[in-house]
Design brief:
mainly beta, Methylamine Dehydrogenase, Chain H, 4-stranded antiparallel sheet, 1 helix, 5% helix, 38% strand
Length: 346
């Protein structure tokens, strides 16, 4: 079984490289790069954004007009994920390919590694999840399962993987109405726990997934939960988009207009729950009917390999797309995109 899991992970990593996604693509690369690997927006002051590229972390205070590098204390490890503490907004977390977790408590000016409790072989962190009632409790999605902190990252503890065949976790979704319910998007499909992570069960009925180790093992890159009806989730995968309305008991493929594209991110409109955006190999796509039909929104998007997609916390018509060829912004819900130049203020 362990060998099958290893083969599945290896295939999934090769698939990422083949479609030019995933931090692993850039191992061994040198020189400057305009690849944008992660984006996060300050929820209280949305003119402030952080982005990660292959070479650095940048911060803007003016909606992307000008940028400054914020890298003091960071190693050369590729940054795969960024997250801002929902209450202490000057605290930012960075998940890396190589050094696990870094944290800044001063808005990105200085970074410190915070890996106490993480095993030596935990070097890759793909995502962070904050518990809504206690945001000092955070989950880190890693290549060997979930790790949890209850003190903002000062100490991490490994969560149980019981019931999981695939522990390479890429994405996650936590039910805010019942935090015992957690979904893990892995290199081998979706797993669900209803007891806070003590045990897990596979939740792949309807997903296009073959047994781990085969050439079609399904990687789940993004999980988006409907904020009103939390049993409705969307999965962006290595082979298209899927939807469940019953808490992952059953999945339905939603492909009209988007096909089986590699999808890096799925977003749900905060007030129009049937309006979705997907960042994919092929650009940005929108659905206004809960994923039944998709249409490309690529006017002005000069690079169609989308790595990251985020929505403005106060105006859902404003989105940022990080691509293999730079950062783009829309202020009209994706009808038009403008490239942002990542250059220091001067």
């Amino acid at each position: 079984m362990a060998m099958h899991r290893l083969q599945a992970v290896r295939y999934w990593l090769r698939a990422l490289v083949a479609v030019s996604f995933g931090g692993v693509l850039f191992l061994g690369c040198s020189g400057k790069s305009n690849v944008v690997t992660a984006i996060v927006i300050n929820p209280d002051q949305p003119a402030i954004l952080f982005i990660a590229t292959n070479d650095s972390v940048y911060k803007t205070r003016d909606d992307g007009a000008t940028w400054v590098p914020v890298t003091e204390g960071l190693s050369n490890a590729r940054i795969l994920s960024l997250a801002i503490h929902p209450i202490n907004i000057s605290t930012i977390y960075a998940g890396t390919l190589g050094d696990a977790v870094y944290r800044s408590v001063d808005g990105g000016n200085r970074w410190s590694i915070i890996n106490a409790g993480l095993k030596e072989h935990v070097t890759v962190v793909n995502a962070f999840i904050f518990y809504p009632r206690d945001p000092e409790t955070i989950l880190a999605a890693t290549t060997v399962g979930f790790f949890k902190t209850i003190n903002g990252g000062m100490m991490w503890d490994e969560m149980s993987n019981k019931g999981m065949d695939s522990v390479y976790i890429v994405s996650a979704a936590l039910d805010p109405t019942d935090t015992n319910i957690l979904y893990a998007g892995t290199s081998g499909g979706v797993y669900k726990t209803v007891n806070g992570g003590m045990t897990w069960h596979e939740s792949n009925n309807g997903l296009m997934r073959i047994e781990p180790g085969s050439a079609l093992s399904l990687g789940v890159n993004s999980l988006a939960m409907d904020p009103v009806k939390t049993t409705t989730l969307y999965a962006g995968t290595t082979r298209g988009a899927f939807k469940t309305i019953d808490g992952a008991a059953n999945w339905t493929k939603i492909q009209e207009g988007i096909g089986e594209r590699f999808i890096a991110a799925i977003l749900i409109h905060p007030t129009l729950g049937t309006t979705l955006f997907a960042g994919a190999q092929g650009g940005v796509y929108q659905s206004t009917d809960g994923g039944e039909h998709w249409a490309a929104l690529n006017n002005g998007l000069t690079n169609l390999s989308v790595r990251a997609l985020v929505m403005h916390p106060k105006d859902p018509n404003i989105l940022y797309a990080g691509t293999q060829g730079g950062l783009f912004k829309t202020v009209d819900g994706g009808a038009h995109w403008t490239a942002l130049t990542i250059r220091p203020k001067g």
